[in-house]
Amino acid sequence: MVSAGVELVEVSDGVFARLHEGLTNAGIIVGDEGVMIIDSLRVPSFARALIEDVRKITSKPIKYVIDTHSHWDHSLGNEEFPDATIIGHQNCRAEMLDIEAQELWMNKIVTSKESWSEEARTVTITPPAMTFNSKLSMYFGGRVIELRYFGRAHTSGDIFIFLPEDKLVFTGDVAQDSGVPFMMDGYMEDWVETGRLLCELPVDRFISGHGPVGGHEALVEAKDFINELVSTTKECIGNGQSNHEAVEVILKKLSNRFGHWRGFDRVEDSIEFTFRQILQNGG
Ligand SMILES: [Zn+2]
Questions:
Q1: For residue range 200-229, what is the model confidence (pLDDT) as tens digits?
Q2: H/E element, 92
Q3: Distance in Å, CA 93 to ligand 1 centroid
Q4: Gap from CA of 208 to ligand 1 centroid (Å)
Q5: Is 140 found in the same domain as 57?
Q6: What pTM does this model have?
Q7: pLDDT tens digits, residue range 162-171?
Q8: Which domain holds residue 112?
Q9: Are 32 and 67 a contacting pair, CB within 8 Å?
Q10: 25 alpha carbon to ligand 1 midpoint, in Å?
């Protein structure tokens, strides 16, 4: 039995999506001599549960941990992998070493009264030891695994783990199947272009940081959501509308196509944030 609330889906030979209901997903890729993990999860006990699930699949050592981005729920388990090489984008490393930003997040987490809040205080932030800028090709267990960076989006350092032979990509939090992403650390205008490039990868399916495994059409929808949000925001700014007026217009427009998505009921703050950011960038 895997951990409670967890589903392990073998999406390709030796490639597993570890889907965690309502929480954060991880990836497990089994090679000839070792294992690669995608995202170490929110606190050490979550990482240890992930390792236990890996042990149900294979006894091979965990050699690599890839951080899709710096956010706590994806990377605060890194310290549980002292024998693995932790890899991420150079901006992901910089964000994890940004003491001010980390303190803001840590405050949010330890005061959230969740079951992991207390444990979060004990975390030693462990940033990637190996970084890259635009692309890193790894030859792992008979397959090529391409780590790709297309620019800023959900954070400044989101990477995609692309398995060309399997037509699969791990997208972190840049794209979900029918779920509104967290945007408050985002670079909304850059996200449009990053999403476009992500959709050009020749894949059939993607594994997101949250929610189910999606098909290519869901990847396109995720891109369209950000595009529509940004373009409508720009229109509202062009029309001289206030933030308050714009939120209503944007909400109405987005709800036609995306109203049924997970998290749509909490999208207002993100729309306000997007408005302020684009206005600040000169509209
Ligand atoms: Zn995130």
A1: 999 999 999 999 999 999 999 999 999 999
A2: helix 90-96
A3: 14
A4: 10
A5: yes
A6: 0.97
A7: 999 999 999 9
A8: 1-149
A9: no
A10: 11
